[in-house]
Amino acid sequence: MDLENNLGYTFKNKKLLEEALTHTSYANEYRTNSNEKLEFLGDSILEFISSKYIYNNYPYLREGELTKLRATVVCENSLYEVAKRLNISKYIKVGHSESISNGSCKPTILADSIEAIIAAIYFDGGLDKAEKFILDNLKVAIEIASKHVGQKDYKTVLQEELQKNGNINLEYKIIEETGPDHDKTFKSEVILNGKALAQGIGKSKKQAEMQAAKKALENFKGKV
Q1: Catalytic: 136?
Q2: Which of 54, 72, 76, 223 is surrounded by the fewest CB atoms within 10 Å?
Q3: 160 a catalytic residue
Q4: Domain coordinates of the chain in residue numbers?
């Protein structure tokens, strides 16, 4: 089946996949099972697997930042993008009312179907297979989102830590740019009240500033 090729998983029990692709509107018209219960379980599996992956791979983030990172990726828009990439709209079953309003392409319906597919894979192949499907489709999105969260985290934590000692003047300066315009490397310096604390290097100015803040934080030797 083409869809199974897209999913990267072959079902032993094809009925599970069929149920995962059956919207409530279709189920009500044809008196069959909808994907609502699978969606319920898939949502919990998705949250658990993504939480475990983020916890293990981004140890520098605090609890609040971990939550923000997960929320950025485990959301309707993110799952809708996965569904579009896998061409789910071609296979999902919707009732007549939804069909005339192009329901098979609605973001909510498609996002819900991804959660249902996760649960279907779990029942058919176990948690490891469900985890593989989740990470195959969301790991890149997590990595992209983590860069923004990580930048905010390092600089915010440094600011908060230094402010414990009173008013401060904390600034970042780009002190060096190397490489061609299409592949530049930046070196940033973080300065506290006119005194340089640390330097950082990155492929963007923001990344270099984040690395400078990270190194400054490391100088606190576990106090943060």
Answers
A1: no
A2: 223
A3: no
A4: 2-148, 169-218
